[in-house]
Amino acid sequence: MSNADTRVTARRTLIVIGLVLATAFALAFVYATRRVLVWAVVAAFFAVALKPLVDRLQRRFVPRRALATLLVFLAAFALLAILAAAILAPLLNELGRFAERAPELLRDVRAGRGPVGHLLERVGARQYVSEHSEQLRTFGARLREPAVGVLRSVVETVAGLVTVIVLAYLMVLEAPRITSRVLAAAGDGRGERLRRVGREVSRTVTGYLTGNLVISVICGALTFVVLALTGVPFAAVIALLVAVADLIPLVGATLGAVIAAGAGFLHSPTAGVVVLVFFVVYQQVENHLLQPLILARAVRLNPLTVLVSVLLAAELAGLLGALLAIPAAGIIQALLREYGPAQLRPKPPAGPDPRRRPAGPAHQSSTGRTGGRSAGPGRELG
C-alpha cells in the first residue's frame, strides 16, 4: 500500500471516529438537557398555534407586536381561568359538603349501611378492611413519607409551566425578526420554499388543535347526555372536566372515564356500570374512528398515517409523543413535499392548491406565449 493510500485510509478512519464521537456527544447532550428540550418543544407547539391570532390582531387592530402578543396571551389565560373556575368551584363546594358528611359516611361504611356501605359489603371489601386494619394504618403512615418528593414534583411542574409560557411568548414576539433573518440568509429561491414550509407547518398545528377541540367537544357532549340520563349530579361540570381531559391523546378518555365512572358509582351502581360501559365503547370509537377521520381531515393526513403515528409515538415517547405525533407527521409530510425525492413526495391534498395563484388573463397570455416558444411542433401535435 502506498503512502497516499495510507493517508487516505487514516483520514477516513479519523472522520469516522469524529462522527461517532460527535453523535455520542450530541446524544449525551440531548439526554442531559431533555427536560429543557421538552419545554422548548411544547412552547414551540403553543407558539405556532397562537402566532396566527397575534398576526391577525396586529394587522387589523393593534400595530405594536408586543401589545398584540400580550393581549392574545391574556385572552388565552382568561379562557383557561374561566374553564378552571367552572370546574373547580362546584368541585370545591362538593368537597366541603363531603368533609361535613365524612364522619357520618364513615360510620355508615363501618356498619355496612348506605350506598357505599352496601357496595363494600357486596364485594367483601368491608370484611377485608376490618381484618387488615393494622396493615392499612401502616400503609397510610408510609404514604406520608414521600411528601417531600411530591412537593418537589409540584414545584418542578410549576417551574416548567412558567418556563413554557415565557418561551412561547418570546417565540411569538420574536417570530417576525427570526423569520425575516432566516429568509434573508436563505436567499430568494430557498426563502420562498421555507416560507411555504412554514405556512404548511402552521396550518398543520392549527388544524390539529382544531380537530382535537372538536373531538373533546363531542366527548363532553356525549358524556353530559349519559350522565344526565342516569341522574348523576353535576353532570355539566363532570362533562366539562371529561372534555378537558380528553384533549390528551389516547389516555385522555381513560382519565375522563375514571372521573365520570367514579361519580356514577357514588350515585348508584347502575349508573356507574352504564357510564363505564359507555366509556369503554366510546374510547374505542374515538381512538379508531373519530381521531383518524377528524384529525386526518384537519391536518390533511391519511387516517392510517394518523393512527400509526400516534401509536408509535406513544410507545416511544409516552404522553408527549402522543401529543406531538400528528403535528410531527404533518411537518414531515410538508418537508417531503418540498425537499423529498419525487418518488417519496406525498400527493397534494384534494381541492385547490393554496400555493397556486389563479390564472388571470395576463397570466394566461404569458403562459401561452411561453408555451409557444418552448414547445416544438411535435409536442404541440402530441
Share of residues in helices = over 70%
Shape summary:
globular
User: Hey, roughly how much beta strand do the residues contain?
Assistant: under 5%
Count up the helices: 14
Region (Disordered): 343-382
Subcellular location: Cell membrane
Transmembrane segments: 12-31, 37-54, 66-89, 150-172, 205-228, 234-258, 265-285, 305-336
Membrane topology: Multi-pass membrane protein
Q: Which terms summarize this structure?
A:
disordered C terminus; 382 residues; globular; mainly alpha; 14 helices
Tell me what the structure shows.
This protein has 382 residues and is mainly alpha-helical. The chain has two domains: 35-141 and 153-186, no CATH class; 190-346, no CATH class. Helices cover 86% and strands 0% of the residues. It has helices spanning 3-32, 34-60, 65-111, 114-123, 125-131, 133-143, 147-186, 188-230, 235-245, 252-267, 269-299, 303-339, 361-374, 377-381. Helix 8 (188-230) runs antiparallel to helix 12 and helix 10 (252-267) runs antiparallel to helix 11. Mean pLDDT is 76; it is low at 351-382.
In short:
This protein has 382 residues and is mainly α. The protein folds into 2 domains: 35-141 and 153-186, no CATH class; 190-346, no CATH class. The chain contains 14 helices and no strands.
